[in-house]
Amino acid sequence: MQVTRIIAIRHGETAWNVDARIQGHLDIPLNDKGLWQAARTGKALAHEPVTTIYSSDLLRAHATAQAVALSTGAPLVADAGLRERCFGSFEGQTFKEIEASHPEDAMRWRQRDPQFVPAGGGESLLMLRERIEGVVGRLASRHADQQIVLVAHGGVMDMLYRLATHQDLQAPRSWELGNASINRLLWTPEGLSLVGWGDAQHLDSGVRDEAWA
Asked: Catalytic positions, please?
């Protein structure tokens, strides 16, 4: 059986995480706390046998991945397939602003309507699941009997958890998506399974959860 071990990491904190502002595909950098979290995550994984690190090409994820690459010595490869869900014209706004300007869209979003596509070329949850399932399979299948790191975003982490635990897209989220927390999964050609989730012991202070992933 072909098995690939995966360490999945959400990027460190950004100023827009603090403001609860939707980032999506916008390229927002880490704030000072996020840079600290990235460095701590890198140190926590320094002695892990890592073959390759794959990262979203967005700056907040790529900077986090660079800290892991520095500590582990593993090569870093950017892959746009690991980007956050695209929220179209809603990017840059807070959820409260969307509730005020587009209440029907906000309700469909809150209810996790799998077919809801944010205005302006956004992605539905169904589209996101298909993308993430595909990119994980493509990357993990290259590394049988090895361990890789995936550095991405809150929405991506949420989808990985749902795929690994066979959770419905509309199931209420009871798991955390903390910045720079360490999550462990296994991949086989049959799909993902969960090993461990939400390890934040390497962070001395609390991590910020993704409220609307």
From this structure: 11, 84
